[in-house]
Amino acid sequence: MDACEFDSTSRRIEDLEQRIEQVEAMLARKKEEEQQADPENDAREAKAALIAFTAKQMLEHGERMSRVQLYGLARQHNMPVPPTQHEYNVFISYHMDMIRDMMRRLRERTH
After folding, report:
1. Cα gap 54→43, rounded to integer Å
2. 106 vs 102: CA distance, rounded Å
3. How far is it, in rounded angstroms, from Cα 46 to Cα 91?
4. Which residue from 5, 26, 47, 59 lies 20 to 30 Å from 83 (Cα-Cα)?
């Protein structure tokens, strides 16, 4: 390998290293953006998780299960529950149609 080829190869390596650094910086920015919380999406996911949990518990223990018991179980399972029992009761009342629909779908899957 002569000096000219060596210089050319060195420049190409430097160029590739710069490109790799640019790509790594771009990926780091993208990862940082993804890690920043999207409050609306987080709230939707929390709501869906709590509805699913409540539906499963009501299916297992019956729809007449005490809301106090449901609230306690949700907290034990680290579910995203509202801070007060009253707010949880309102949440269940407001979403009861969705909960019943999910219970029906879960029942259909098991039979």
Report:
1. 16
2. 6
3. 12
4. 59
What are the mean pLDDT values of the chain's consecutive 10-residue runs (111 residues total)?
76 88 87 72 89 93 90 93 94 95 90 70
CA distance 35 to 27: 12
Tokens 């290293």, residue located: 17
| Amino acid identity at 34 | E
* Tokens describing residue 76: 């034990």
- Whether residue 52 contacts residue 103, with contact meaning beta carbons closer than 8 Å, is answered with no
Q: What angle do CA 97, 77, 56 make, to 5 degrees?
A: 35
Q: How distant is the alpha carbon of residue 38 from its chain centre?
A: 10
Token pair, residue 48, equals 């869906």
